[in-house]
Automatic annotation (TrEMBL):
Gene of this entry: gltA
Similarity-based family: Belongs to the citrate synthase family.
Top EC class for this record: transferase
Source organism: Geomonas limicola
Pathway: Carbohydrate metabolism; tricarboxylic acid cycle; isocitrate from oxaloacetate: step 1/2
GO biological process: carbohydrate metabolic process; tricarboxylic acid cycle
Stated name of the protein: citrate synthase (unknown stereospecificity)
Length: 441
C-alpha cells in the first residue's frame, strides 16, 4: 500500500465513528428548511450535502481543507525552481487534509508516473471521432472508454464486494483518472490543433510541467498549468460537476462513469464552458470595435447589448459567491506580477470589463452577484501563452476538477454515503401548500 493510501486509510477509519454517531444519535436534528422558491429554483442554498474537502463562503470564497487560496499556495511544498506547488502535493493535501512533506510529494509523483500510462485504445477511440467534435466530448469519451480499466467495477463483480473496503478501489480508479487526465487532455490538444503531432510523456516532470511539455508550451507555462489545475479543483459539493459526479457514484457507478457524467455537466455554458464563452464574447466585441481602442463607454455599451439581447454576461455572477471570486483574484495577481502579461491588450480589456461590468449588472438589477467568477480571467492567461483555441479551455477546467471530484468520491465510499435520492413533489401540491401557508408537518 502506498504512503498516501495508508495515510488515507488512517484518516477514513478515524472519521467513520463521527458519521455513525451523527446519523445514529442526531439523525433527526433539523439543519435547514426548504421553501417553494428553492424547490423550483435549483435547490439553491439547501444544506443537504457533506464534504470536508472544501467549503465555499459567499463572502470569502473557497477554502481547500480549511485554507484560503493564498494559504494553500503558501503551505504546500513547491515544484523545483517554482513559487507554485506541484499538483501532486495538492492531491495529497485534498485527500488527507495534511500538508505533505517533500518526501511524501515525491512518493505521489513516483506513483503518478506509473499510473499515467494511458491505454493505446483510448487514443484509437479519440482518433475515430470527427476531428471537429468539441474537445469536451473527446475528454468525456476518453474517460468512458477507459471504464474497462475500473478496479472498483472489478471488485464489485468479484463476488467479494463489501462496503468497508470499497473505498480502496475507488482510490485506485480516482488516482488513475487524476494521473491520466492531463495526458489525455494533451493528446486531444495535439490531435485537434497541432495536426496530431503527439509528444511523449517526460517521466522527469511533475504533472503540471509535463502537461506544458506535452502541448509544446514554454517553461513559464508550467506554473500556469500548476496554478490552473489547483484553482479549478474543487468548489464544495453543490456545483454541477461535483454534484453530478457524487450523484452518479452514489449508485455505485464506478469513478469513470461518474466523472464522465461530471464532465458533461461541466460542459454547460452556465458552468465550466463559461471560460470559452468569455473569450468568445471578447473576440466578438473586438470585431465590432473594428480596430478602435476599447473604452469604458464602448465596453458599457457592449455589456448592455448583451443584456438587452436577453443573454448573460459570461464570467460574471455566481450561485453562492457574493463578492469577487478569489480564484479570479489569484489569476489577476498572476497577470499583474508577470512582465508582459500585465501590459497585454487582452488583459487590459478584461481589467476594464472588471471595472465596468459590476456597475452595469447592478443597474440591470437581476443578478444577485455582479462580481466576476473564475472564468472571467482564466482565458486571458491561456491566450497570452499561445493557447488560443478557446474551445479547449473547459478541458483545462476538467483536468483540474478531476482532483476535487475524485477526492470527494473516494471519501464518499470511505464513509459509506447513501445512494442519493431526494423527493419530488407536484405543482398541485405546491399550490395547495402555498394556499395553506406551508406544508403541515
Ligand atoms: N449576466 C446577466 N444576467 C445574469 C448573470 C449574468 N452574468 N448572472 C445572473 N443573471 C441573472 C440570471 O440569469 C437570473 O435571471 P432570471 O431571473 O431572468 O432567470 C437572475 O440574474 C438571478 O440569477 P442569480 O440568482 O444571480 O444567479 P444563479 O444562481 O441563478 O446563476 C450563474 C448563477 C453563474 C449560472 C449566473 O450568474 C450566470 O449565468 N453567469 C454567467 C455564466 C457564468 O459565468 N457561469 C460560470 C459560473 C462559474 N463556473 O465556472 O461554473
Ligand atoms: C465551480 O467552480 O464549480 C463554479 O464556480 C460553480 C459553482 O461553484 O457553483
Amino acid at each position: 500500500m502506498s504512503q498516501l493510501k495508508e495515510k488515507l486509510q488512517e484518516k477514513i477509519q478515524a472519521h467513520r465513528p463521527r458519521v455513525t454517531r451523527l446519523t445514529k444519535e442526531f439523525g433527526s436534528v433539523v439543519i435547514d428548511k426548504v421553501d417553494i422558491g428553492q424547490c423550483i429554483g435549483g435547490a439553491r442554498d439547501i444544506r443537504c450535502l457533506v464534504t470536508d474537502i472544501s467549503y465555499l463562503d459567499p463572502q470569502e470564497g473557497i477554502r481547500f481543507r480549511g485554507k484560503t487560496i493564498p494559504e494553500t499556495f503558501e503551505a504546500l511544498p513547491k515544484a523545483a525552481g517554482s513559487e507554485y506547488p506541484t499538483v501532486e502535493s495538492f492531491w495529497y493535501f485534498l485527500l488527507t487534509g495534511d500538508v505533505p512533506t517533500p518526501d511524501q510529494v515525491k512518493a505521489v509523483e513516483a506513483e503518478f508516473k506509473v499510473r499515467q500510462q494511458v491505454p493505446e485504445y483510448v487514443f484509437t477511440a479519440l482518433r475515430a471521432l470527427p476531428r471537429d467534435s468539441h474537445p469536451m466530448v473527446m475528454l468525456s469519451v476518453a474517460i468512458m472508454t477507459m471504464q474497462k480499466e475500473s478496479k472498483f467495477c472489478g471488485f464489485y463483480n468479484s463476488g467479494k464486494f463489501n462496503k468497508m473496503d470499497a473505498w480502496e478501489y475507488v482510490y485506485e480508479d480516482a488516482s488513475d483518472i487524476v494521473a491520466r487526465i492531463p495526458v489525455v487532455a494533451a493528446f486531444i490538444y495535439n490531435l485537434k490543433y497541432r495536426g496530431d503531432k503527439q509528444v511523449a510523456i517526460d517521466q522527469n516532470l511533475d504533472m503540471g510541467a509535463n502537461f506544458a511539455h506535452m502541448i509544446g508550451q514554454s517553461e513559464q507555462y508550467k506554473d500556469v498549468a500548476r496554478m490552473y489545475f489547483i484553482l479549478h479543483s474543487d468548489h464544495e459539493s453543490g456545483n454541477v460537476s461535483a454534484h453530478t459526479t457524487h450523484l452518479v457514484h452514489s449508485a455505485l457507478s464506478d469513478p469513470y462513469y461518474a466523472y464522465a457524467a461530471g464532465l458533461n455537466g461541466l460542459a454547460g455554458p452556465l458552468h465550466g464552458l463559461a471560460n470559452q464563452e468569455v473569450l468568445g464574447w471578447i473576440m466578438d466585441f473586438q470585431k465590432k470595435l473594428n480596430g478602435a481602442e476599447p473604452t469604458k463607454e464602448n465596453v458599457t455599451k457592449a455589456l448592455w447589448d448583451t443584456l438587452n439581447a436577453g443573454q448573460v454576461v459570461p464570467g460574471y455572477g455566481h450561485a453562492v459567491l457574493r463578492k469577487t471570486d478569489p480564484r479570479y483574484t489569484a489569476q489577476r495577481e498572476f497577470c499583474l506580477k508577470t512582465p508582459g502579461l500585465k501590459e497585454d491588450p487582452l488583459f487590459k480589456l478584461v481589467a476594464m470589463i472588471f471595472e465596468t461590468a459590476p456597475g452595469v449588472l447592478t443597474e440591470h438589477g437581476k443578478t444577485k452577484n455582479p462580481w466576476p467568477n473564475v472564468d472571467a480571467q482564466s482565458g486571458v492567461i491561456q491566450w497570452y501563452y499561445g493557447v488560443k483555441e478557446w474551445d479547449f479551455y473547459t478541458v483545462l477546467f476538467g483536468v483540474g476538477r478531476a482532483l476535487g471530484c475524485m477526492a470527494n468520491i473516494t471519501w464518499d465510499r470511505g464513509l459509506g454515503y447513501a445512494i442519493e435520492r431526494p423527493k419530488s413533489v407536484t405543482t398541485d401540491m405546491l399550490e395547495k401548500w402555498a394556499a395553506e401557508g406551508g406544508r403541515k408537518m
